[in-house]
Amino acid sequence: MQAKIVVLPGDGIGPEVTAEALRVLSAVAKKGGHSFEFKEELMGGCSIDRRGVALTDEALAVCKASDAVLLGAVGGPKWDDPSAKVRPEQGLLGLRKGLGVFANLRPVKVHPALVDSSPLKPEKLAGVDILVIRELTGGLYFGQPKGREVRDGIERAVDTLEYHDFEVRRVVELAFRLARDRKKKVTSVDKANVLESSRLWRSIATEIGKANPDIALDHMLVDTASMRLITSPASFDVLVTENMFGDILTDEASVLAGSMGMLPSASIGDGGPGLYEPIHGSAPDIAGMGIANPVGTILSSAMLLRHSLGLPAEAEAIESAVHAAITDGCRTKDLGGSLSTPAMTDEILKRL
Ligand code: IPM
Ligand code: MG
After folding, report:
1. Is-above-0.85 flag for pTM?
2. pLDDT band at residue 200 under the 50/70/90 scheme
3. Which of 220, 252, 257, 344 could make an S-S bridge to 339, C-beta 3.0–4.6 Å?
């Protein structure tokens, strides 16, 4: 097959890890007779430096016209001033909104060989296989009004947590569809004892649960969920939640896997190009040192093949190769090893 893939290396370790994922995608293309065209664009701090904004309209248009977008990471101390008018994160939020990718899939699995890298007891980690689905284009991140003002000498700041019924419905329905191929269990996480938007969320989830009686649905308050992710992570299958709760819970869940560097993500919408990125940040402290773990980005490229290009066998081949490399003891520094970023990829390519 033919596909146009836009690559947004971004900042910090972003360029290092996306380069490795492209090596893997190229190997897959060569093996399967596919033709992938890669086009690089600027997004994040690098775009601020060269174009004055974190994402230009032109770069967004190129992304929209592609089959899929692969992103490294954005941000860094250079652009960290919280009062700055332009910030790298604006590019990421603009891209998510612009592509309409309302569902962020963050799978969290614990490789048996990495249980000792997690601060949790090994017996807690057995059987952990969670798919977190975070709503990505609504809630506090985008609700209006939003802003700061000084009135009568008092400064006020406001963010708005707003959800429309259709925004909740489409992401919860996706959670049910994906649960059907898994353990058939959906946990809908909200704060319905306090928030009106959560009460809307819960009533829609309940309605969808009734229409899908083959899937077990339970509702959990976000504070309880944050505790249960640590005390009984193996009890979750699909967890679906709103944008901000999902942001926080996925960082928490990543600790289960031993290193943030291991975890991929896919952001998908209604048929347009998907956005694929590791869940880690730009890690400016190790940027340019060649020691970043490329696995999160390589697994994100597997998700790209599965969700945007309809190549599930190729996706599985990458996932198996990563699994085998980890089983055989291949480790970057974050996991206590000494392999460089390209050397880790070499080990994965050998097993592909
Ligand atoms: C994430 C990140 C982003 C978010 C930041 C960089 C804006 O934390 O992808 O989880 O909050 O969504
Ligand atoms: Mg986050």
Report:
1. yes
2. very high
3. 344
Give the CATH class of 1-102+261-352.
Answer: alpha beta
Q: What's the confidence (pLDDT) of residue 249?
A: 97
The residue among 62, 67, 60, 64 whose CA lies nearest residue 29 is 67
CB-based contact 301:24 (threshold 8 Å) = yes
- Beta partners for residue 275, in sequence order: 69, 267
Is any ligand 1 atom within 6 A of the Cβ of residue 207?
no
Q: Is the predicted pLDDT of residue 299 greater than 90, yes or no?
A: yes
List, by residue number, the catalytic residues.
141, 191, 223, 247, 251
CATH architecture of the domain 119-257 equals 3-Layer(aba) Sandwich (3.40)
Instruction: Pick the ligand that lies closest to the CA of residue 252.
Output: 2
- The reply to whether domains 1-102+261-352 and 119-257 share a CATH topology is yes
Report pLDDT digits (tens) over 306-347: 999 999 999 999 999 999 999 999 999 999 999 999 999 999
Residue ranges of domains in the chain: 1-102+261-352, 119-257
For ligand 1, the distance from its centroid to the CA atom of residue 247, given in whole angstroms, is 7
Residue nearest to atom 1 of ligand 1 (CA): 247
